[in-house]
Specification:
8-stranded mixed β-sheet; alpha/beta; about 325 residues; Rossmann fold; about 30% helix; transport; cell membrane
Amino acid sequence: MTKLLDVRDLQTHFLTRDGVAKAVDGVSFSLDKGQILGLVGESGSGKSVTGFSILGLVDPPGRVTGGQIVFDGDDLVAGGEPMLRHLRGKRIAMIFQDPMMTLNPVLRIDTQMVETVRAHEKVSRAEALRRSREALVQVGISSPDERLQSYPHQFSGGMRQRVAIAIALLHKPDLIIADEPTTALDVTIQAQILSEVQELCVKSGTALIWITHDLAVVSSLADRLAVMYAGRIIEEGPTAEVIANPRHPYTRGLIDSVPQGKRHGAMLTQIKGMTPSLLNLPQGCKFAPRCPRADDACLVEPSLAPAGADRSVRCVHPHDEPPGKVLAP
């Protein structure tokens, strides 16, 4: 069966005065229709740049320097801007972490949503308004007719994010790339958005890449999980299996650092050190300077190797035993 999205050895580099920063360095993954992939990792791991690369939204001095991004049989890297312009918003939508990257501050919400609909479909303004109203209701915005007449500055940050999510849902796209879209939302609305997104994926076959640092959220949302570190995927597999038995020490550290189950006042578990500079990466395994299991064997860069059925890990000394910690949303 043909994959909806097949990313092969993607490389996105930033050419700076101080050197080449390999923000995405040989990332590969695929998505079927209706499948949800969680892309997790610390800030600076390359998650967002991976999402921007798929849609051709990487600004200079960054650029895709290698690899393929095959969407429904078409290579987006080879097709360039003309192909991407046709797909953006209609077949591939992106929800940004900052809603003001989506919303124009000087245009009313109805103008922006109607233009989004009519940019890809020849429908009347009345039909475009109807769909816009339905999309606002879908993301939990009350009094949609009143809200459509408002400007972005009249909304709270959380409300603006909901509008941005509604715009992404307007065309029921084949693929949505969501870059931490619920960070500014309260828990109740977050749960509602997650439920709506899951329902959309089931009913319409929309595939979803959910970029986040929140393992608790993605554990209940994603079918598969890909953990990124220093521009590379270091572990991938079915979400339930990765959460229950993380093989890579970095994945284990992320799960152990979740405060769930800690008694009040107890010290939180941390991953020592900081993410390395992309301009000065360590030799061999990029996580080795922070890893409690590192030794001289880690001075050679490990490859992403099979680690059981439908799983892979980039580590010389992977964990074999489960941590005994259950992660819940």
